[in-house]
Design brief:
Helix content: under 10%
Shape: globular
Distance between the termini: 20 Å
Radius of gyration: 16 Å
Strand content: over 45%
Length: about 110
């Protein structure tokens, strides 16, 4: 598969609180909250800078991401995308449509 980006997903340590031997919560470092890099193919489906609210304007975008099957857990609800060393953002997963005849997982953000 041709790749043009990197995907990260939250690790189990990001969702479960960690405690030291005295029962004091341990603050995780940002690098431990995300998985190892997973190569992926990122395709922008829509992009709009026309959004406005009382605080100003905002940018709205949606993406289609392809990753190799079994590269990420199928119950992943949030991902972080990176392309050319620049973080695109953190996104909630909107769905996992079926990809026919490919051994890949499609993610809609």
């Amino acid at each position: 598969m041709r790749t043009n980006g990197i995907l990260y997903y939250p690790t189990s340590s990001a969702t479960a609180p960690q405690f030291d031997e005295d029962g004091v919560p341990v603050v995780s470092t940002p690098s431990s909250l995300w998985s190892d890099p997973v190569p992926c193919h990122i395709k922008m489906l829509s992009s709009s800078s026309k959004g406005t609210n009382e605080d100003g304007t905002f940018h709205q975008a949606s993406y289609q991401v392809l990753v190799e099957r079994n590269a990420i857990p199928e119950d992943t609800k949030k991902v972080k995308l990176e392309r050319n060393g620049v973080t695109i953002g953190e996104f909630q997963v909107q769905g996992y449509p079926e990809v026919i005849n490919l051994d890949r997982i499609q993610i809609i953000l």
